[in-house]
Amino acid sequence: MKKSLGIGMIVAILGLTGSCGSQQKLQYPEAPTDANVSDDYEGLVVADIYRPLENDTAAATLEWVKKENALTESYLKGIPYRDKIKKRLTDLNNYKKTGLLSKKKDGNYYYFENDGLKNQSVLYRKKTTDGEGEVFLDPNTLSEDGTVALQGVMMSNDGKYTAYVISRSGSDWNEIFVLDTESGALLEDHIEWAKFTGAAWDGNGFYYSSYPKPEDGKEFSNANENHQIYYHAIGTPQSEDKLIYEDKEHPLHFHSAYVPESEDYLFVVASGEGNGNSLMYKNLKNGGDWVTIEPSQDYEIGVIDVTGSKALVLTNYNAPNNRVMQIDLNKPDKKNWKEIIPERKEVIKGVYPAGGRLLVQIEQDASDRLYEYDPDGLLIREITLPSYGSIGISADKDSDEVYYSFTSFTSPSRQYSLDLKTGESTLIHQTEVGGFNPDDYVTEQVFYPSSDGTQIPMFLTYKKGLEKNGQNPVYLYGYGGFNISLTPGFSPNRLLWLENGGIYAQANLRGGSEYGEEWHQAGTKMNKKNVFNDFISAAEYLIANKYTSPDYLTIEGGSNGGLLVGATVNMRPDLFKVAIPRVGVMDMMRYHLFTIGWNWASDFGRSDDSREMAEYLYSYSPLHNIKNDGTVYPAILVTTADHDDRVVPAHSFKYAAMLQASDTGDAPKLIRIDSKAGHGGGKPISKVIDEYADIYSFIFNNIGMEPKE
To answer: Is 679 a catalytic residue?
Structure first.
């Protein structure tokens, strides 16, 4: 029988390393339970004994969290090189990070910069590209501990005002403030309870999206319904904001506003029900009625730009890999749409009007490419990029000035100016990381067969001279969902793994957008197990080709990737030595009942859809498929946070409690519950370093490997 332990007893049983001898199973705190709770899904009865943990403000839950954190902290404190890892991560993060230049309507150039270890990057501006920057907005001054983060900065079209959106402690709840752009003075305008929004400027005010104020004490757990669009006039209180749009018949839809620079039209995008979005607009000049361009959410359609009455859109309507279309807003029926850039075999990822041209971002085999087209869709040239990587683009349709950034697994941000007339790129900034030489490392892309024969791409990054002896530590990362693509990107925290001889493997699983909507659909609903099989096959490929062996293989993923890790560990616990499911969706039967969980049904399906869907979800739900028969599981460190209102911590609470109560061998099954943190976005550098120090300490300890000096 489990029992709660005092701190002294916890410390006494620790100090055993993960792979350096026999392990003693930890004694875990006893979680609050209710043996009488179950749900009936058309005859499929599912017990839920840890239902009390869904109440994250209950005294019993708070006490359990306190004891779990004490146990985890004591375990990690017993790892002798934890402080050394934290110091090295601090050193690796301590370099100047400069963001991409963006020329705004006030004529100044804006960019984010962090001189090293500031918790949040600072927004600077300067009058010329080679001028001296001045601080425009420093989010580090908005809180003492760096837990207030900028989510967006939007300048009015006349340059007079600048709105900025913040989140507190990692929550999805937003607040909006307004500055006088010229002076930088903070105005009295303040918007609360906004969510998933920016500020779409129209005249002397802006449109934003919000929910009704939530019930006290349930701000981070209750389901969010009735997403509304309001208009706020500068200088007025929020109580006077005008309700512009809501859809009471569909309370689970998201609504967002877009206004082109001309301010002639207001577009409203609705999503949350299907795999795409609906689109409607209103003429702001003549005060006309709403006009629907697309009523369904069956495919994606996004407005790129509007010139006169012609809207340029990117859509996957009858084009799974996307195409660019022109819509005459006076004749918006599909029969009148004009194709500008047709679908390609690669995915069209983004389109940026610039100086009379169209810059088109293409994704080819999970890596970005850049092409230049004329306004009529004629290809002019491909812009040469350094290698596998990801790009960001800063451009304006009325300006010839174009800047783009490039990053890869071993290359921190490089920034270029692009000459649209010649297609030539000029390097204007290259980030340097002290003590790291990118020439010492290599990235290769491999393709491996999944269980059904589908070829899956995977990037492998490691130190040159690697010997394929089956004994290299591998950190295998995946996501596989929600049309999200994993392209190469730089992380200073990953360097610690690489410099210690580790391999970083990033698998491009089905469910993402790497090969368009068909690739996405192949990893959703009744096809979701394809994603887990793709991940398992990645591990098998790495083992078969002597990159590693199960004793040295760690898997990690966050959110939908946390689900991925939890499900694959249940399916193949023999393949992995360590598993790190972060802020994961672990209860597939009840995920839709919290905050915005209902929005994930287009990818997952819901347990109340049908008996068949409920059975499929139940068959892989991480919480419900933990073995309890002595099957040896890897060491598992679950991570979550108290302000995560995207994937509520109850998922991780219930999963960790079930793990700890089950007979899965003696490897540690711990949970790390962060405070004043959320799903991950905007997390201060200090908290990021702390979290990775704990994760790496846990991994090294359990594969029996001490980090190098």
So the answer is: yes
